[in-house]
Amino acid sequence: MLSCSPRPPPSVVSRVLKDTGRTVVVRGQGVANGEGHSGAAVCIFDCYGADPLANLPKGKAGLARFVQVDEETCLIDLTVEGLSPGKHGVHIHESGDISNGWKSTGEHFNPTNVPHGDLHHGHLGDLGNVEVDENGWGDLIIESDRIKVWDVIGRSIVITEKEDDLLPSSTDGHSGDGLLCGIIARSAGAFENTKIVCASSTFIVTFKNDTPDEIIEQQIENAKASGAEIVHRYNSAIKGFSVKVPDESVSALSLASPHVEAIEADGEVSTQGRSLLTSN
């Protein structure tokens, strides 16, 4: 266990630990007074390749978590896998329309109409760069007093092929085409939301990174036994599976488990394992 005094920001702790050569994963986010956060969101990235118009998503390639710690501070924890080594631009775009990949997500989110720039002075959607190592793994932890979770839900995040120069000389920092993108969806805290689903809904169930494979396989078998169809198994940037649940099987399906990190369904995310109920 690591104890820090005085309390530095999570981004500082993460950077110091990474400088020692260790892998750092932020797990568990909250506030000191125990009253919970002011809002949360999750964005799961799909890989669209070089030409998003020509191909459907090729698989999950990472995720970003947003937690509004208080009225002034938003914590963003982003992880990606499979990109080329080096820096890649990270931007919140104004639209959550990914029907044509990143090309249909619009411009950078810029409600204050300022020039492009860095995290502190540019577009509200300018999040800087994520640095990817030689193994294709990259992470980024940001604390922002400009971004509010409730302003970005329903928008999208795009990660680009090149580094963002963070300068006001262009609209996108010369960061090139998008490689990964995803919709920012509302996330409920533990026991704050029970997901109500419609007939034949599809869920993406993600597990904590240290979850043994046999536990995930057991959850898959349980889902099959309840009448659900496993659409895909993820085992790279995220661990988990997507499952299609017909109306007549929803009441029999339960994904309650301490190993489940999030359940994404119909544009909404419920964190912590949850039993799933049919809608009226």
What integer is the average pLDDT? Answer: 75
* Main pleated-sheet profile: 8 strands, antiparallel, barrel
Strand content: 35-45%
SS-derived structural category: mainly beta
Multimeric organization? single chain
Rg value? 19 Å
Count of DSSP-assigned helices: 3
Flag low-confidence runs: 26-34, 51-57, 189-200, 266-280
Task: Count the beta strands.
Answer: 16
The CATH homology group name of the largest domain:
Superoxide dismutase, copper/zinc binding domain
The CATH class of the largest domain: Mainly Beta
Count structural domains: 2
CATH third-level topology of the largest domain? Immunoglobulin-like
Distance between the termini: 47 Å
Sheet with most strands: strand arrangement: 1-2-3-7-6-4-8-9
Order of helices and strands: HEEEEEEEHEEEEHEEEEE
Level-2 CATH architecture of the largest domain: Sandwich
The 3D shape can be described as globular
Helix content, binned percent = under 10%
Keyphrases for this structure?
single chain; mainly beta; Immunoglobulin-like; eight-stranded antiparallel β-barrel; two-stranded parallel ribbon; S8pro/Inhibitor_I9; Superoxide dismutase; SOD_Cu/Zn_/chaperone; SOD_Cu_Zn_dom
